[in-house]
Amino acid sequence: MTEATTPLLYDLVTGDGRSLSPWCWPVKMAIAHKNIAVETKPLIFSEKDQVITAGGKTFPFLVETDGQIYDDSRLIIDHLEKKYPEPTLFPGGVSGLSHYQLVFRYCQATLFPTLVSMILVDIPDVLDPRDKDYFITSREKRVGMPLADYCAKREELRPTLNNQLDPFRKAMAVGGFICGDAPAMSDYMLFGMLQWARVTSPFELYDQYDDIWDWMEKMLDLYDGLGRNTAKA
Ligand SMILES: N[C@@H](CCC(=O)N[C@@H](CS)C(=O)NCC(=O)O)C(=O)O
């Protein structure tokens, strides 16, 4: 078997092919940051068997040119940083890495559950028709109620989200980005969360006078508009 010349990224997409996952977007931004040539395989939930067959579990999933597999976003990011060290995803070395670990955990444990309670009900609308039943059934089982009920109080969650985003506003105020005067991995992590919401839900999470809005506009423009070229719900 001939060795592949570029790594292969399995990406999760909407019915019309837009990358949607909050865990895939940070990886896609990291790849763009490092300007690495990667082949992307866009798949819907119903095609996840291709990930499983190749040795993965969930999206994102990366197969390197030597056949090595990476089946989690943090493993992929760690691998990319080691294999392609420049430009670094973690400016400041060890302190940059611990900054990212803090931001990852905060996004995963605090921000993600709030966002789920605000946008989950909208996600089936952007999925391929083959995915809808699977998504609704699996997520209703996970949250223990109909998706509409789970998101019924989303208007009331606005102040909660507003407060949860505040540490990022403070960080952005220093140099324009969470990582300072240029974006890096902690920026890509928050971007992944908010881009997932932008692509899957028309529900407005924050207003135009918010520093988060300004930062998001800059993030959407990065790398020839990688984020912005993926249409909003
Ligand atoms: N911790 C994992 C989470 C990945 C994950 O949960 N991906 C979701 C998509 S957002 C998935 O593949 N779900 C498959 C399914 O629900 O069948 C990572 O960071 O890579």
Show unreliable segments.
none
Count of discrete domains:
2
Q: Main beta sheet, described?
A: 4 strands, mixed
- CATH fold-level name of the largest domain: Glutathione S-transferase Yfyf (Class Pi), Chain A, domain 2
The percent of residues in helical segments reads 40-55%
**What is the radius of gyration computed over CA atoms, rounded to a whole number of angstroms?**
18 Å
What topology emerges from the helices and strands here?
Layout: E1 8-12, H1 24-34, E2 39-43, H2 49-53, E3 61-63, E4 69-70, H3 73-83, H4 94-119, H5 123-126, H6 129-143, H7 147-150, H8 158-175, H9 185-200, H10 211-225
Parallel strand pairs: 1-2
Antiparallel strand pairs: 1-3, 3-4
The structure holds glutathione.
Structural overview:
By secondary structure, the chain is an alpha+beta fold. It folds into two domains: 8-83, Glutaredoxin, CATH 3.40.30.10; 94-225, Glutathione S-transferase Yfyf (Class Pi), Chain A, domain 2 (Up-down Bundle), CATH 1.20.1050. Helices cover 54% and strands 6% of the residues. It has helices at 24-34, 49-53, 73-83, 94-119, 123-126, 129-143, 147-150, 158-175, 185-200, 211-225; strands spanning 8-12, 39-43, 61-63, 69-70. It has a four-stranded mixed beta sheet. Strand 1, helix 1 (24-34) and strand 2 (39-43) form a beta-alpha-beta unit. Glutathione binds at residues 12, 21, 23, 45, 48, 58-60, 72-73, 138.
